[in-house]
Amino acid sequence: MSDEVSVDDSGLTLPIDVNAPVEEPETREITPEDLRALAEVEAELDQRWSEVKIDPTLTRMELLMDLLGNPERSFPAIHVAGTNGKTSTVRMIEALMRAFHRRTGRTTSPHLQLATERIAIDGQPLHPRDYVRTWREIQPYVEMADAESEKEGGPKLSKFEVLTAMSYAAFADAPVDIAVVEVGMGGLWDATNVINADVAVITPIGLDHTDYLGSTLEEVAREKAGIIKPRWDLDDLLTPPDNVAIVADQDPAAMTVILEQAVRADAAVARAGSEFGVVSSTIAVGGQQLTLQGLGGDYTDIFLPLSGEHQANNAAVALAAVEAFFGAGSGRMLDIDTVREGFASVESPGRLERVRATPTVFIDAAHNPHGARALGRALQRDFSFNRLIGVVGVLSDKDYVGVLTELEPVFGEIVCTQTRSPRALDAYELAEHAREIFGEERVHVADTLPSAVELAVELAEEGEMVSGNGVVVTGSVVTAGEARTLFGKEPT
Fold it and tell me: PROSITE patterns, per this entry (predicted)?
């Protein structure tokens, strides 16, 4: 087996045996003692600033990385920013990389059920014991960085900054061959942005976190595009490293800002609809069948076990990112069977995830108008329900009126509820807004998620056409996570 990527008349050759099975990581039992220790660490970390409060600087993270010996420089990375589709795109990139026999590290946020989901190695969440151990190992260095920041009049590291440092330390310790990193909020000042990624990915940008990122698409895009950075090696200016930006379909205002940043960073750009995209998408049992235009050519007969046109678009972005990482280009395709294997293995929990049949119950983490619109389109395109009941619980700092407006044409009736999150909007306040959009008779209220789901199922079972009715639980990542636990789904 060759140790190098090579190109010949037949295309691109990677140093792997594509016929060898992908090794699955060993599964270790999680004991009650493990969960107690995890809860103790989470209680400690929760004393820090939450991830919805940021101080726009990388100074603390850069100091901490220096104290830790710069673990973020020990692996190549693909960095993913955007407003919607980040987590699904990250999971697709990771699945493809694993199919190509790369040991992967993955960060996503926020988590659905357990904090350990945020840090994954080889596709598996960090075991609680490893999560606790990693924190204890870096804790003294975090406290040193805290002290230095406070001496300068700044805050301690936030919980998200600590979790990012834990991710990079765990990846270096594994070690991983490639890290696939999801931005937390924004990009330019996001804690994850201490890495110097080989490939930067920008998923669709919309208005979200406007109190931190700006009130216009241009302002938000400027923050997101901050992950596209120069990669010149000042010690070797004759052979600069690859620097590629993969850009999903964008509003023209956002695209202009992204392209301007790519020019400043001297990054090559591949855009959805130009250099890559979705050629065709047809509904299939359990997902959809795709033909994708990649950077190297057309990839046919791709089965993706996720529903919705937005997931097909995410798949095109993910493929282009992996192609760019491996150096694929015109006439130099990746092995198509391996690509098919990677996409077929994709899981994206809480993204139009079916958790019950008759009546069908789906869970979706849509939490802003753009995500709600994608959810509605996916339900209308991929399924044929006579009637859908929505169970909606939102966070008070989100555009929940915009979410309700997008969901109104989709749901016949809606059950307003709330999660256990301290940021949750009161169910009765949500119902007041819902009545203005849906009308009085289509709105119900249940002040806990279990009772809301129970009521929605009862409503879906009314009448003679139960098999054509369904329930969708949505409104926030927290709502999706609590619903997964309610239906007995394990964290993934």
Answer: FOLYLPOLYGLU_SYNT_2 (PS01012)
- pLDDT band for 206, please (50, 70, 90 cuts): confident
| pTM score, whole prediction | 0.91
Residue 311: which domain range? 32-345
The pLDDT score that the predictor gives to residue 490 is 87
- The tens digit of pLDDT for each residue in 146-169 reads 999 999 999 999 999 999 999 999
User: Last residue of some domain: 345, 371, 391?
Assistant: 345
Q: Can you give the pLDDT at residue 77?
A: 97
Q: Does one domain contain both 430 and 446?
A: yes
**Would the pLDDT of 17 be above 90?**
no
The mean pLDDT value for 290-309 works out to 97
Residue 81: give its domain's CATH number. Answer: 3.40.1190.10
**254 and 338 co-located in one domain:** yes
Is the Cα torsion angle 53, 56, 62, 67 positive or negative in sign?
A: negative
Assess whether pLDDT exceeds 80 at residue 200: yes
58, 191: one domain: yes
Q: Which residues have CB under 8 Å from 334's CB, separation 6+? A: 12, 14, 100, 294, 296, 299, 322, 323, 326, 328
Per-residue pLDDT, 240: 62
Cβ-proximal residues to 146 (8 Å cutoff; 6+ apart), any chain: 156, 157
**Residue 273 included in any domain:** yes
CATH number, domain at 367? Answer: 3.90.190.20
Predicted pLDDT at 242: 82
Q: What mean pLDDT comes out for the span 215-228?
A: 93
Tell me whether residue 94 is in a domain. yes
Q: Are residues 298 and 386 in the same domain?
A: no
Shared domain for 283 and 432, answered yes or no, is no
Average pLDDT over all residues of the chain: 92
- 393-423 pLDDT per residue, tens: 999 989 999 999 999 999 999 999 999 999 9
Residues 213 and 195: their CA atoms lie apart, in Å, by: 20
Q: Report the alpha-carbon distance of residue 408 to residue 437 in Å, rounded.
A: 7
Determine, yes or no, domain membership for 371: yes
Number of domains in the chain: 2
Same domain, 250 and 295: yes
